[in-house]
Amino acid sequence: MANDTVITIVGNLVADPELRWTQSGMAVANFTLASTPRTFDRQANEWKDGEALFLRCSIWRDAAENVAESLEKGARVIVQGRLKQRSYQDREGNQRTSIELDVEEVGPSLRYATARPQKVDRRQGGQRAPQQQGYGQGQPQQGQHAGWTDQQGGYDDTPPPF
Amino acid sequence: MANDTVITIVGNLVADPELRWTQSGMAVANFTLASTPRTFDRQANEWKDGEALFLRCSIWRDAAENVAESLEKGARVIVQGRLKQRSYQDREGNQRTSIELDVEEVGPSLRYATARPQKVDRRQGGQRAPQQQGYGQGQPQQGQHAGWTDQQGGYDDTPPPF
Amino acid sequence: MANDTVITIVGNLVADPELRWTQSGMAVANFTLASTPRTFDRQANEWKDGEALFLRCSIWRDAAENVAESLEKGARVIVQGRLKQRSYQDREGNQRTSIELDVEEVGPSLRYATARPQKVDRRQGGQRAPQQQGYGQGQPQQGQHAGWTDQQGGYDDTPPPF
Amino acid sequence: MANDTVITIVGNLVADPELRWTQSGMAVANFTLASTPRTFDRQANEWKDGEALFLRCSIWRDAAENVAESLEKGARVIVQGRLKQRSYQDREGNQRTSIELDVEEVGPSLRYATARPQKVDRRQGGQRAPQQQGYGQGQPQQGQHAGWTDQQGGYDDTPPPF
DNA sequence: TTTT
DNA sequence: TTTT
């Protein structure tokens, strides 16, 4: 019976995405992700970066255009898709195969401080709510803060998990 | 030996994220994801939505502030994190447990047409490159298009995988 | 658009699987997995076990019988399936929900030295190497079967997890 | 920051696993998984098999011996591990890379009727139910061992995948 | 309780 | 090059 080959990878774009169109007018974007596993070195007793995986990705239609507009070299993204084998001929004429990712979902990671895109307007047309500046003020909104730590309860002050 | 419980889910926020701070000043954002499995109904011979999973999520520090600023009700996101069991007392005083997701990575999905946030500037400070217009024009850029479909090669016109 | 909620977890069975049959004769096995995340404690500078996640799992048809025959308390397994929300009434009559895993694939982990099951016979017919000890008879155990379908029936009256 | 590149794949072994030892005596098993995505053909209105992905896998130590004893050509398995890029020289002397899977967990799928291995003995010491047919002797097979470590040695000279 |  |  058939299998499901969907996987998820987190990594950074090694270059800007390349946007193209098929002859029938369908958009396709290609980009390469570098994904660097974190490994704990028992000898050195510290975290080190492992060897990076470079994974070629492709994405289609609207998503391709979104990717080309929203992502650039260095962006950290989460991608979900299917591993696919592609055949090609090298310069010597030998048949070769490579493994790539057919992306179904991709999103820019919101993990770090610089990653604060504007809110997206989901209404028809795709305009976005006006914003004067508003990035990264990064300070507690008084009301919320007070309201929350005033109570006894809710989340305790335990350290976060990572 | 210990296990790794990292999972990835795609879904939509059922409400705006709630941003709070611990007493020590650490930001935490909470939100609930609705993830609706797509199932193929053999009787009706068509795709249908399955029953949604509602998964409570929490995220910490900078990422919490990014989430609060960037995401809102309805947003489609990819989240990666660890399933966690939380204990609490219900109104009758019974000990209960719930399963939640401790989010490590989250990104707004770029899958659909309206999802086109501006490019994020990765330089220190987080300002973003000026842009005159540039959103969603969604048309082939002449040079690229021509250069690509002119050749015989590159990607062929096969239908996309999904 | 709908989402795909398939996840994979590695863990150990906290008890032997429970095998039952629906009134229509379909086998279902239930078991609970304990999955213990490994975390690196920066203070102590060592690996520690995090808090275990206990995840209720169900699996159907042939796979249910395989699970009941092959797995027992303590077994380390890899499971792949969909997170599902289940509604039930607690003793006070309140509507509650729990999150469980609808298992699509499960296999006993071959990671450690003791995990060496016999090779499986893949030939048509499915006979397998003779076994004295009475596993694998593949028939409803009278007590369980009766006890369960005697009730008003169906699968939906199972007790909530934990 | 580093990423986590753990993925899970379900597939079938295209051949028996190959078991070898490094010069330092560490076991390593290699096998190739075929993972065939199931796709729904809207034209034909039916499920079809997509194009298979062939993924080269390696696994180490005890797990390698377990794999060699328990799995054979055709076996359906669940594997979890990290995608890794490997460099090698092709016959023309060109530097090439391939993507493989460093397996951390693997288990034979219990999904189908024929997949019913005996229960595994989990007691200290790792003895297992008596077996007449000679699986699981757990010792290096002379020929393989010799043939492999006789060469100049180490694991790194293995031929590239496919 | 969300959703192209 | 596998496969309920």
UniProtKB/TrEMBL annotation, chains A, B, C, D:
<dbReference type="InterPro" id="IPR000424">
    <property type="entry name" value="Primosome_PriB/ssb"/>
</dbReference>
<comment type="subunit">
    <text>Homotetramer.</text>
</comment>
<feature type="compositionally biased region" description="Low complexity">
    <location>
        <begin position="126"/>
        <end position="147"/>
    </location>
</feature>
<dbReference type="InterPro" id="IPR011344">
    <property type="entry name" value="ssDNA-bd"/>
</dbReference>
<protein>
    <recommendedName>
        <fullName>Single-stranded DNA-binding protein</fullName>
    </recommendedName>
</protein>
<keyword id="KW-0238">DNA-binding</keyword>
<dbReference type="InterPro" id="IPR012340">
    <property type="entry name" value="NA-bd_OB-fold"/>
</dbReference>
<dbReference type="Pfam" id="PF00436">
    <property type="entry name" value="SSB"/>
</dbReference>
<feature type="region of interest" description="Disordered">
    <location>
        <begin position="86"/>
        <end position="162"/>
    </location>
</feature>
<dbReference type="GO" id="GO:0003677">
    <property type="term" value="F:DNA binding"/>
</dbReference>
